[in-house]
Write a structure and sequence with these properties.
alpha/beta; 12 helices; single chain; elongated; 31% helix
């Protein structure tokens, strides 16, 4: 008998406008393969009423625009076996009891976002290392005057530190290696680093040894504001800080001071509180910083609109595994949930 699969939305608008929603290649595949249903659970709907409906299905698919998943399912799931979250983030609509439940597999998109986010970090790193903003500026001012910069550099034998060695951090290492840098990494939850990566035991050691630091850690109470003024001060003059993870990992005030003083260079895709500084901020005029407003990891240019994307493929693969009686990949355990953004 085919799996019964439910996909829930908060509103009709979410059903029609979100990625992987109604009429998308993923939904068409789900409709072909399974007993597939879509419902709208508005925010005011009673939690137990939602739970009663969900208990009639084997799989609940969640994503941006999904309603809160009732915690009562953790101990009383009915036939529910799998909450398949298509995105990376889960905490906005799924609480820890679901991750801790012995009855339910909770999964997300796993490593599928690794390449695009690692590319984003590499883009910012090279742009800052090559002083791209300054050279573009000298072309735009109509004078054609080439700035004489002592800060122009190469990755070869540069000391690059990586904070966080999850899926994105590992992909970033793969991109870095051909350029020949010396790579250090800090992640207390990774017992063994990839070949060619030197493990350090503290953030202080990471910043002391690095000329460039790229942040790939998840946001948790442990990592929030963990990149302090003291750590930034340990980077050398004209050192580079790259953040494509979460803005709140860096102390924003300390970062602002380093940028406005001109001492550090920064490629910032994410920033606390709104992914970019306030309108009119002098930070936008700083030639030693690039702000990309949490957009570098996104984009579907060149993608066949009729083909299931990499994130949808992870979802379909996990449902196939469940249908065969196997465990799905990229499970979010209670321990992992607590460390996640």
């Amino acid at each position: 008998m085919a799996l019964k699969v439910l996909k829930a939305y908060l509103s009709e608008e979410d059903k029609m406008d979100k990625p992987w929603s109604y009429g998308s290649p993923l939904v068409r595949e789900l409709e072909k393969r399974y007993d597939y249903t879509e419902v709208i659970f508005p925010p005011e709907m009673d939690e137990e009423e939602k739970a009663e409906i969900i208990r009639e299905y084997d799989v609940l698919i969640t994503m941006w625009g999904s309603p809160h998943v009732p915690n009562s399912l953790a101990d009383n799931p009915g036939r529910l076996k799998h909450v398949c979250n298509i995105t990376g983030e889960v905490k906005k609509w799924i609480d820890e009891p679901i991750a801790a439940s012995p009855h339910i597999y909770l999964t997300n998109w796993g490593e599928s976002a690794g390449w695009s986010m690692a590319e984003a970090a590499m883009t910012l790193l090279l742009a800052m290392l090559k002083n791209l903003r300054l050279y573009v500026g000298c072309s735009e001012d109509g004078k054609g005057e080439k700035p004489d910069l002592e800060t122009q550099g190469s990755l070869y034998q540069r000391c690059v530190g990586i904070y966080g060695m999850g899926a994105i951090g590992r992909k970033f290492v793969e991109m870095l290696k051909p350029f020949g840098p010396i790579i250090y990494a800090f992640d207390p939850y990774v017992p063994q680093m990839p070949e060619g990566v030197i493990k350090v035991d503290t953030l202080e050691e990471l910043f002391d040894k690095s000329q460039i630091v790229a942040i790939h850690a998840g946001l948790s109470e442990e990592t929030r504001n963990s990149v302090t003024a003291d750590l930034l001060a340990r980077l050398p003059d004209n050192g580079i800080i790259i953040n494509t993870a979460r803005g709140a990992i860096i102390d924003s005030e300390a970062l602002n001071k380093e940028i406005l003083s001109g001492r550090l260079r920064a490629g910032i895709d994410v920033y606390e509180p709104n992914d970019y500084p306030e309108k009119g901020s002098p930070l936008f005029k700083a030639e030693n910083a690039i702000w990309t407003a949490h957009h570098l990891g996104a984009g579907d240019w060149g993608v066949d609109p009729d083909r299931v994307d990499i994130y949808g493929k992870v979802c379909l693969d996990n449902l196939e595994r469940l249908d065969r009686g196997e465990e799905p990949k990229y499970q979010i355990t209670q321990t992992l949930y607590r460390r996640m953004t």
